[in-house]
Design brief:
Chain A has 447 residues and is α/β, with parallel strands linked by helices. Helices cover 20% and strands 21% of the residues of chain A. The chains are: A alpha/beta (447), B mainly alpha (422).
Chain lengths: 447, 422
Amino acid sequence: MGRTITLKKGLDIKLKGKAEKVLVDAVKPKMVAVQPTDFEGIIPKLIVKPGAEVKAGTALFFAKKNPDIKFVSPVSGTVKQIVRGERRRILHVLIEADNKNSYEDFNISDLSSLSVENIKEKLLNAGIWPFIRQRPYAIIADPETKPKSIFISAFDSAPLGVDYEFILSKELDNFQKGIDVLSKLTEGSINLNIDGKADDSFFSKIKGVELNKFIGKHPAGTIGTQINKIDPINKGEFIWYVNPQDVIIIGRLFSEGKFDARKLIALVGSQVSEPKYYNTILGAELNVFNDDALNDKSNRVINGDVLTGIIANGFIGAYNSQVSVIPEGNYYEFFGWIIPRLNKFSMSKTYMSWLMPSKKYSLDTNVNGGYRAIVVTGEYEKVVPMDILPTYLVKACLAEDIDKMEQLGIYEVAEEDLALCEFVCTSKIEVQKIIRDGINLMIKELS
Amino acid sequence: MKALRKLLDNIKPHVEKGGKFHFLHSTFDAAETLFFVPNTVTKTGAHIRDAIDLKRTMFLVVIALIPALLFGMWNIGHQHFLAIGEQSTLMDNFIFGLIKMLPLIIVSYVVGLGLEVLFAQLRGHEVNEGYFVSGMLIPLIVPIDTPLWMLAVAVAFAVIIGKEVFGGTGMNIWNPALLARAFLFFAYPSSMSGDKIWTSGLTDGLNTLDGFTGATPLAQMAANGQAGTKLAEELTKSNASLSDIVSQVYDKFGYITDAIGAKMSHLDMFIGTYSGSIGETSTLAILIGAAILLFTGVASWRVMLSVFVGGYFMGLLFNILGPETNVYMQMDPLNHLLLGGFAFGAVFMATDPVSASQTSTGKIIYGFLIGIIAVLIRVVNPAYPEGMMLSILFLNTFAPLIDHYVVQSNIKKRLKRVKITA
């Protein structure tokens, strides 16, 4: 039996533009991109050249550090272009889709006859391994490690987060299959974590999992918070985690023998006229949504949620289930720091937003102030439910003191777990970047 | 507003990188961001940000100081006219106070902000908002007739040695405003102590009514405590019974008076119609400020509450442990909280987030110790009738140590977990 955990700390930011539970088919993409930048810490080595014919599941590049980890094309077609950025860093591998949907054949095999090594090999070959990530560090899992348990967060507490029950109900069989595959990879349990406030009749149908319920505000839905409460990571331990939609993709590999990267993506945010779910595919160009808001220069299009996502450059990112569109905030506001500003949201009671707990806001990307040294204390602590001292962890990262970072719990966090610290910070400290730099320093120093 | 924006936009290219006046960009930024929240958008991390910023936070503290400031102005006049025995209306008192107070505020802000801008300019940083608050705090915690040049020197000391040498707002170890006060106290002791400095005009040889005393309640109690003990010793020699000694001592020394010799009740102390530094006397006005700070969440309730609890606890401890004949030790602990700078220190000084402890547990320990040490200094060391300033500065020094142990306990918890699972 799973556990029920109530979290007191956290913050729900209510934004306009949550997706209706309506599913429509997106336009078929003409262009699809695989973006190495989506995968933290990966240096890509190309296998294909422009002009090569690929099928869905054909490897495009592999990770320099571990050539077994391959990244594959989600569609069949032709490699059109390798887009490079500064210092020739690969930004996208562009594939022109032929819409024939031809797949590489990875064989359907009986799960019970496969050893752990066979399963790993199959996942690596089919390019699905990158969807399995690990804590510490929130990077692609090292296939050589043994995870003490596997976590799946089936609810998204972030602003405008998607409804995984709605998404998973379309393909429950493959989700179950994916869980069965994952449970072979660990001697520990598969923790499926759901929203404790919602009805659990759907998720209780899933077998072979510990069904844990989390009651609380964001970041209750982030993996780091859930791990900290259920099975905290100590030095030398590993936990793997997979997004629910990627569990389905794993399931399809074993039930259909192919890399089938169809996904449901929610287009959300105050600038979207009709926020809803779209049937599309991993890496598809954003034009498939056919929404004008995406082309408006005064909007910001984000791959993922508004707290942790990255600015989209034309394509759907690897790990996300949503694309958020919010207004840019590049305007001046006369005496903005004194006036009441009823349309602004704040955790503190220095604004009126606490009086209107159910009001939904259309927040923009304005920083709302200047960058300062840390002055106000106790803010971060209000939004971090983990047993961690966020201010001191951030300071240890800034000081590049790896001993302190380790002692203060760097293994247990990733930037997404502390994204709210960055949101609430009076001094506008860039917490997520600091934590990521700290994690990368740990990886460098310990390897 | 549009014209102002246009003006700023016209100047902007000249102070931006490559412009002729680029060296002035800190000053320009300070002016621009005073009028307009800048158009900066998020680049990394969270795309949306909380609407709060340091300007609003600091501004709210200044607002919270206004009740104490207004009462202080009135009380300047009130004490002055009491001293010379003239009838005065509320308006008379207030206007007298305003005239006395305004130069102090202006000097504090002009010198302090001037130095802040200068340092920001030298470093090429944005001007920090920290001095918004310090600049208002400093005039409120000095005696009313403090010479302006002294104030200017103290402000310069606080800003340069107290803050800028450490790197500016957010980096300092001690509360800058208290540092200014401590500087005045130790550098110019003759102008900062005694009974004459608290009422406007007295140091200039103003003729006062008979029976007028300018002594602050705490100075009275310190003196009473010593005098009472002396009297008790004498009476003991003459073989009086203990109960007799106690009653005699209390009859003579066991009370606090206001400027014209009337005994003060708790209500008088709470309202604050006695002499002292400008902003510190009225616990009522300070608590209105405290309510603003706590409600908006700008100040930490942990610190504030634990300072009061610590002070009350120490007062109570003296009640229990102190000799019966020591009137100061036997004073109602509530008086400690109502008199002198205790409430002001607890609400506006101890809660300064930069110099206070930063962990939640640390804040409680930090505040509690401030309360204890403040009362300890008051009662035990008659050379310092007011212990709040030294107590807070002392704990400012130790705040990082307190935090260190709180952080260590978190680390130990994490290490323990490894052993359990191993």
